[in-house]
Amino acid sequence: MVVVYPCSTLFFFFKMLNSIDEVVRSRMGRTSRRRRKKRQKERSSRSLSHLEPYVNLARWMRKQGFTGAPLCPTTFVGTGRGLAATKTIKSNDLLVALPKRFLITADTVLQSYLGDYIVRSKLHLTPLQAVCIFLVSELWFSHTSVEPQKITPCLDSVIPDLMHYNFNSFFDTPSICSQKDSTGASRPLQAGFWKPYLFVLPNSYSCPAFFTQQLCDTLPPVLSHHATEQTSFVQVAFRSAWPFITSIQPLFTRPVSSIFTFRAFLWAWGTVNTRSVYMQPHPAPLLTGGTTGDFALAPLLDLLNHSPTAQVAAGYNEQRGCYEVRTLSPCERWKQAFIAYGDHSNHQLLLEYGFVTSPNPYSLLPLHAEDELAVFVANRLEKSMQKNLMALVERGLDRDMTIGAGGLSWNLQVVLRALALKPHHRISFGDVVVGRSVPTSMQAMATKLALQLCEQLVNDRRQRLAKVPHGERRHEATNSVITLLTEELEILQQCLSLPNVGVQNSL
């Protein structure tokens, strides 16, 4: 028996089904979006190898004879851009071998179109100045041959997950290198040759020389002092190189004053300072110092990030004519491959490379007698203490004063004992600074000074941390400063928790 429902009943029935379907779909949509956002947060890496600048870099290196490496440009959470291993790398495996032709050194500049101008110039450039001028020149020649909107990679664009991208095509079988003519003689590279490499370099860097004044004011005094010296060094290098820069005007169709700005020179200096590797210097009479300098820029290799726990062996192999990096510890597939820049504290890393690592086993809080220690002594209003500090500075005994999680350095303890020296103590100033035993009252006074000094530094770091911008979208440099100040607070608090603030009873 067939039941016939009225049209109105069927209408409401289907309307109810549509409403339920819309509710289910909307809920599934929200759930899907939430799951998608959660997956995106959990992703620790994303491939960059499909982006045009990295594709061009791979093709260019392959064309020039690069045999490839088990590495892929990738952006990682926490460290940013780096290199992921495309296969499991065992201990003592060769990570990358970069032929000499890919290294940018002062010798590269001498063999380029700038070489004749350097020969004719009466001004002897330093290797650093020569390479900086060459980078700005190459960047200008590279820009003139492409559309402006195509030169900067968009690292914030949506890119596929690392685990779903095929990396096997990033480096294929190499073609024949064409850096020599038919006679086999070396020929200078044409202007703009380094374009694929230059277009994957950052537009700016996060060294203190690139900081705003507001951010510089939040740096610890010692680091702020070094940052000022760093900026002054770059300014002096730019001014002293200007006569040579004006002499190469015939190479350009625009005034060199519009090409070689201080901002452009600062970018070139930042490139060399943060991305170069060590190279054995070679004779170069035309340059200041008579050598090519001890640095080289290495495409692809400079994408390797630093880790204080990484174990690698790196250096130029004269026999093979390659700069080689060999890992001494295994690396799993799709994990980030690291190298170690050295046993650097976060002060050194931020100053020279523009980043910090946390945790860092080499982190220390350095002090200068003319900065925070001078303020500490001035607040005591004791003439004997100020006199002793001046004597320490005159004798150069105020160096290597640091505070670590394990306590105060030997030099800082000696300085505090010297500051605690009073006229009535039966011990000479010279005996104190060489580390001889001191009276119990002096030892107690030195411990008290250490406690007061650490408390003063804690208050100072908290005030500086409060001045740092804490917006939702912070620059990398801002994050580095926050991490550095937070780390110093932790070091001081650990030091304060030690017996006698880490001051030893006898040296």
Tell me the radius of gyration.
Answer: 30 Å
Query: Which residues sit in consecutive blocks of at least 5 with pLDDT less than 50?
Result: 1-5, 7-17, 23-27, 146-187
Structural class: mainly alpha
What's the overall geometry?
globular
Compute the number of helices.
17
Beta percentage is 5-15%
In round numbers, the mean pLDDT is 80
Give the CATH class of the largest domain: Alpha Beta
Region (Disordered): 28-48
InterPro entries: SET_dom_sf, SETD3_SETD6_MTase, SETD4_SET
Biased composition (Basic residues): 28-41
GO molecular function: protein-lysine N-methyltransferase activity
Describe the protein in words.
Residues 28-48 are annotated as: Disordered. This protein has 507 residues and is mainly alpha-helical. It folds into four domains: 7-42; 44-101 and 155-191 and 313-352, no CATH class; 104-145 and 201-297, set domain protein methyltransferase, domain 1; 365-502, no CATH class. Helices cover 43% and strands 10% of the residues.
Secondary structure topology:
Elements: H1 7-42, E1 45-47, H2 52-63, E2 71-76, E3 80-85, E4 94-99, H3 106-110, H4 115-120, H5 127-143, H6 195-198, H7 213-216, H8 221-247, H9 256-259, H10 262-275, E5 276-278, E6 295-297, E7 305-306, E8 312-317, E9 322-327, E10 338-339, H11 346-352, E11 365-367, H12 372-378, H13 383-394, E12 401-404, E13 407-408, H14 410-419, H15 429-433, H16 440-467, H17 476-496
Helix pairs in contact: 5-10, 14-16, 16-17
